TrEMBL record:
This is Ferrichrome ABC transporter permease. It is a multi-pass membrane protein. It is found in: Cell membrane. Pfam families: FecCD (PF01032). The lineage of its organism: Bacteria, Bacillati, Bacillota, Bacilli, Lactobacillales. GO terms for molecular function: transmembrane transporter activity. The chain crosses the membrane at residues 47-64, 76-95, 102-121, 133-155, 184-202, 222-251, 263-281, 293-310.
Amino acid sequence: MLVLLAILSIRFGANQNDNSTVFNAIFNYHSTDINQRIIRDIRIPRVIGAILIGAALAGSGALMQSVTKNPMADSGILGINSGAALMLTLSFVFFPHLSTQATTIFSVFGAAFTSILVFIISSLKKSQMSPTILVLAGMAISAFFAAISEGLALLMHLKQDLAFWHFGGVSAVSWSQLNNLGPWIFVGLAILLLLAPSLNLLHLSDDSIKSLGKNINVIRILALCCVVILSGISVSLVGAVAFVGLIVPHIAKFLIGTDYRQIIPLTLILGADLTVCADLVARMINPPNETPFGLIISLIGVPFFIYLARKDGHNA
């Protein structure tokens, strides 16, 4: 499915291409052909970016749901994306000429700060906190940081410049960004895959985990680092896109059960499927104009979030 969606995304868009043009752009490239240049320089990095970001957001969502024992956890809903976006806004306001790597550092720092807040909130009580309380706290943090970002953007006349990050999209992903930030996403995904067997233990109590000889604090710290890397870089590349990490892990669990050794790899693939498909739909709805990428995801994510909230309320 992912391969098929990637091929369709490379071929279709504002400028339609036939199969031979796509083949030649990949295997027999001629820089004088404008259609091949569009495929090679714009669409291929865009598709690769969508794949990496989809995997990163879905994987961080699965990780947060496991560590916080909260089925509604997601980097967007819990405010981590908004924290990263706020620091990105501050970098535009005070350091407008920073490089992509430097703005990414700001974004990762914002994600780290907000993640620490979320984990502090989730650890306020020794007993498990209600998922609803944690989500409400995360949404409050998200609304607060989003309000500051909006205010700074209006005050400093940066509304148009920051519109891309508010709505989300992969249209601006370039080979340069992939070369600089792609390896860090792979590092985060590698940590996530290594953590997968340990995530099965998190269904147990802390005392039970310690009796098995595992250090729960090490697992949580590594999980926090992984979420920070994946969420921070994702926001710096495509903006504050929510709900990918909420939806995809639940689909993976529905398909293959509750073993995180299987859930995590499938979640990464399904997350890439979702973002590539959403990006393709965003381009095809009203060509040559693009519908905001984040809007397509939200149209699916908001009803799913309401369903989970109602389900949690009934279980409580």
